[in-house]
Amino acid sequence: AQSVAQPEDQVNVAEGNPLTVKCTYSVSGNPYLFWYVQYPNRGLQFLLKYITGDNLVKGSYGFEAEFNKSQTSFHLKKPSALVSDSALYFCAVRPLNTDKLIFGTGTRLQVFP
Amino acid sequence: GAGVSQTPSNKVTEKGKYVELRCDPISGHTALYWYRQSLGQGPEFLIYFQGTGAADDSGLPNDRFFAVRPEGSVSTLKIQRTERGDSAVYLCASIPGQANTEAFFGQGTRLTVV
């Protein structure tokens, strides 16, 4: 079955420190990969995507993600976390043989001042 | 407005009642998705439209759930004989049509079945 795993329910990091939110996937072929963020009482907002090309993609608010084909991972990163980055983050994949967007269970990021 | 609009934002209904949830996608977007998000969970795929037709409805949990998009724009998710387990946030998203583009989500409809 095609799936997305976010192994950490919560990630805690101090402001100014680098952050990583992990994502691995299990789908056939090379899917399209996405990260979304959800703030309280707000809809999902697109952060970045990997389609093809350079394995390191840059997105909104200083976030970036690294695609690793051999490890089937797409970890979200930011060099220096802000308190305002605290939110719920979702990894999603769209397999090439379907238009369905499959989400992980989400990781809550808490950045402490 | 430029974004995906969902109405109502909140809906409380009694067990056994029928509800309709509406989604207005971004103008010109050909593809439309419905998702359901329960507390503490990621969005769960329900159905996907390409134009007026349901291209994939494999996520609809049972025959109480039905969705339409008669003119290829606005979509309505219909739930018959609601159950308490249907309580969740129902999300709608639209994309221009190319698979490599990101989906734009609405704010969701919080459905509570009492």
So how many helices of chain B?
0
* Structural class by SSE content of chain A: mainly beta
Biggest pleated-sheet summary of chain A: 6 strands, mixed
Contiguous runs where pLDDT drops below 50 for at least 5 residues of chain B: none
What is the alpha-carbon Rg of chain A in Å? Answer: 13 Å
Looking at the structure, what is the overall shape of chain B? globular
Oligomeric state of the chains present here: heterodimer
Helix content of chain B: under 10%
- Helix count of chain A equals 0
- Poorly predicted runs of chain A are none
Tell me, rounded to a whole number, the average pLDDT of chain B.
93
Topology pattern of chain A, helix = H, strand = E: EEEEEEEEEEEE
Report the end-to-end length of chain A measured between terminal Cα atoms.
Answer: 40 Å
Strand content of chain A: over 45%
Can you tag this structure with a few keywords?
heterodimer, A: 113 residues, mainly beta, 6-stranded mixed beta sheet, 12 strands, 0% helix, B: 114 residues, 4-stranded antiparallel beta sheet, globular
What report would you give on this structure?
In chain A, the strands form 3 sheets. In chain A, strands 2, 5, 6, 10, 11 and 12 form a 6-stranded mixed β-sheet that branches. Chain A has a 4-stranded antiparallel β-sheet with strand order 3-9-8-7, with no helix packed on it. In chain A, strands 1-4 form a two-stranded antiparallel ribbon. Chain A is globular. Chain A contains no helices and 12 strands. The model of chain A has no long low-confidence stretch (mean pLDDT 93). Chain A has 113 residues and is mostly beta strands. In chain A, strand 8 (64-68) and strand 9 form a beta hairpin. Chain B is mainly β and 114 residues long. Helix content of chain B is 0%, strand content 48%. Chain B has no helices and 11 strands. In chain B, the strands form 2 sheets. In chain B, strands 2, 4, 5, 6, 9, 10 and 11 form a 7-stranded mixed β-sheet that branches. A 4-stranded antiparallel β-sheet of chain B has the order 1-3-8-7, with no helix packed on it. The radius of gyration of chain B is 13 Å and the shape is globular. Chain B starts with a strand and ends with a strand. In chain B, 36% of the residues are buried. The model of chain B has no long low-confidence stretch (mean pLDDT 93). Classes of the chains: A mainly beta (113), B mainly beta (114). At the A-B interface, strand 5, strand 6 and strand 11 of A face strand 4, strand 5 and strand 10 of B.
